[in-house]
Write a structure and sequence with these properties.
Blueprint: E1 9-14, H1 18-29, E2 36-41, H2 44-52, E3 58-62, E4 64-65, E5 68-69, H3 70-79, E6 86-90, H4 95-104, E7 108-111, H5 117-142, H6 152-168, E8 174-182, H7 184-191, H8 193-209, E9 216-221, E10 224-230, H9 235-250, E11 253-255, E12 258-260, E13 263-270, H10 278-294, E14 300-302, H11 305-326, E15 330-339, E16 345-356, E17 360-362, H12 364-374, H13 377-397, E18 406-410, H14 413-416, H15 421-432, E19 439-444, H16 445-450, H17 452-464, E20 468-474, H18 480-484, E21 491-494, H19 496-501, H20 506-521, E22 525-528, H21 534-542, E23 547-548, H22 559-568, H23 587-595
Helix pairs in contact: 2-3, 3-4, 7-8, 11-12, 13-15
Length: 596
């Protein structure tokens, strides 16, 4: 629509009376603004076709058109998608016709013989300006303000049209891609929302650049994008497009002096005749995208019906998980941490278990990831912390051990980044009466590295309470050595993946040796996780590791099992033999080894 440019504003008069056309032309000649170009038709069908294709900028339609009604033409044109304003003209004033015209969507209603050039010009100008403000409002309602892409509403509308077309014509095939940027929250939190927005804009540009002209890409919300691929050949064609988009997104973005790396997980849904609503296609594409995330991110996944069943099962588990908190269905199990020299036990790691009323004992692998995703891990983790501290105090007060007992409790990523975590720990210490030095909080290095500055402050606040901090699963994250000296860690826990392989893999043994040496140089304790046989025990003993845990010594035990363990003592395993290879046993040998 041209209301401010140099091109003439095209006006079409739809009127079967030539005298009315001549009179209208005279009025146009009197307009102060000579940018209007008046055209005339008496043909109803011709006018209808022109209005459907928006051939003109504005239409003047006579109320009476022979066998047809101008009001009928107006109604049909607007219903067919005519976006240009329509002014209805009538030979005599009629309030009922006036009301019907405005209800049908007419821009204005004028009575012939009762208006002169200034009034007609003002009506046309007002109608054009109002229409321009409306298509603008409509555009903003259907497009994302940040990227300029169609938004969720517009994409869903276009997808609905594609469904209708495909149901009419079997040759009309399409697919939907659901994209989610991997690790976008980390980028947003670390570099700020301003750069995060610029990254989204850059992603939108790349997606548009590498799609065909008739394909549609939309910003669905947040860091989610959807793509409608039309006229597809086959499944492999769509997968090829998806993989090409993944390669393009993986190329680093250079924004305001920053080199930003990201990737995308893509879910794919192919149109099938059982789909009747766009919401169902989008749901399934989103499900496939989620599965791509679960499988390791930076990949594409085609929707399969069993994924929906899995989702329903996850939804049921989530509902049960929410109720489990109120129904006290969670239990804390305790795995002993053993002194590898004396086989004495003075410490336990607390591990949460879920005793489902119907499914029995649910593995943490089946509910912890879901608890993390839904945020339920925060109240669950808070309960585990309090229960563990209460229990260790109870064992100490009952005199079940001659040694001072301590407890190690895992903090999830969401717990650690919770703004009130230090106060929560402080309250637990005060409520349970536990000695802060008897409480050791374990955090994974990947959790710490993802938001280093915030994590450093939180860990410092926790250390100020007197608790001790352990780096869990050490060696499996990234940037460990460059950050390790900055954080107040008291101990390193060697991940079980290294321990399990060290009796068969020399490289794993050397990694364990290096971690032990590193910890000793930094004056930290070392705990080896996942000790399952005596050979691993012997190797760790030879390397100078003093603490360990694993099935060789004990599986995680319920409270009653720990009671028996503390009363009767742990069943001893064959002690390691002195092999003459044991190093790092003293500070002198440590210094000598570090020099060599």
């Amino acid at each position: 629509m041209n209301i401010a440019g140099s091109n003439p504003i095209r006006v079409l008069l739809v009127d079967d009376d030539e005298d009315d056309y001549i009179l209208t032309k005279y009025l146009f000649d009197e307009f102060k603004d000579n940018r209007y170009a008046l055209e005339w038709t008496t043909n109803y069908d011709e006018a209808m076709h022109d209005m459907q294709t928006s051939g003109h900028d504005i239409y003047l339609v006579d109320y009476r058109l022979g066998a047809h009604s101008g009001l009928e033409l107006l109604q049909r044109a607007i219903k067919s998608g005519c976006s240009a304003p329509i002014i209805l003209l009538t030979g005599q004033g009629d309030k009922e016709v006036d009301l019907k015209a405005m209800q049908a969507g007419a821009a204005d209603y004028l009575v012939k013989g009762q208006f002169e050039a200034p009034l007609l010009e003002r009506s046309i100008r007002y109608s054009l300006q109002h229409a321009h403000s409306m298509e603008k409002l409509l555009y903003e309602a259907l497009h994302d303000s940040l990227t300029g892409l169609p938004n969720r509403t517009k994409f869903t509308e276009m997808l609905g049209e594609s469904i209708k077309n495909s149901q009419k014509m079997s040759s009309s095939r399409f697919a939907v891609l659901f994209l989610d940027l991997d690790r976008f929250k980390i980028i947003n939190d670390s570099l700020g929302h301003f750069l995060g927005d610029k990254l989204l804009q850059s992603v939108a540009v790349r997606l548009k650049r590498y799609l065909r002209p008739h394909d549609v890409v939309a910003r669905f919300g947040g860091d989610e994008f959807t793509i409608l691929l039309s006229n597809i050949k086959d499944r492999q064609d769509v997968i090829d497009v998806s993989e090409r988009l993944q390669r393009e997104i993986s190329i680093p973005f250079k924004i305001d002096g920053h080199e930003i790396f990201t990737s995308t997980s893509i879910g794919i849904t192919f149109f099938d005749r059982h789909y009747e609503r766009p919401e169902d296609i989008l749901r399934d594409a989103d499900t496939a995208m989620y599965q791509a995330k679960v499988d390791g991110k930076a990949r594409c996944k085609v929707f399969e019906p069993e994924m929906h069943a899995t989702n329903l099962n996850l939804l049921q588990i989530e509902n049960d998980l929410r109720r489990a908190i109120d129904r006290n269905e969670f239990k804390v199990y305790y795995q002993p941490i053993v002194n590898l020299e004396t086989q004495t036990i003075s410490e336990f790691e607390s591990l949460v278990r879920w005793e489902h009323p119907e499914q029995g004992l649910v593995s943490p692998c089946d509910f912890i990831p879901l608890a993390e995703e839904t945020g339920l891990i925060v109240p669950i983790g808070e309960w585990v912390l309090a229960e563990s501290c209460r229990q260790i105090v109870s064992w100490q007060e009952n005199g079940l051990s001659d040694l001072p007992l301590s407890i190690s409790v895992n903090l999830s990523a969401k717990q650690l980044m919770h703004s009130n975590i230090a106060n929560q720990v402080k309250e637990v210490i005060l409520e349970t009466g536990i000695n802060p030095r008897s409480l050791k909080l374990e955090v994974t290095e990947s959790t710490v590295m993802e938001n280093a500055e915030v994590a450093l402050q939180i860990l410092s606040d926790l250390c100020a309470l007197g608790v001790r901090i352990s780096s869990d699963d050490f060696g499996t994250g990234y940037s460990s050595l460059s950050y390790l000296h900055r954080f107040p860690f008291d101990r390193l826990k060697i991940d079980r993946s290294f321990i399990m392989k060290m009796d068969e893999d020399a490289k794993s043994e050397e990694i364990v040796r290096t971690i032990i040496l590193l910890a000793k140089n930094l004056n930290m304790e070392v705990v080896a996780e996942g000790i399952e046989n005596e050979k691993q025990y012997q190797q760790l003993y030879d390397l100078g590791c003093k603490l360990g845990q694993g099935f060789l010594f004990s599986r995680p035990l319920a409270k009653e099992g720990v009671d028996d363990l503390l009363k009767n003592g742990a069943p001893r395993v064959s002690p390691p033999k002195w092999s003459g290879e044991r190093i790092f046993a003293s500070s002198d040998t440590l210094k000598a080894a570090s020099v060599q």
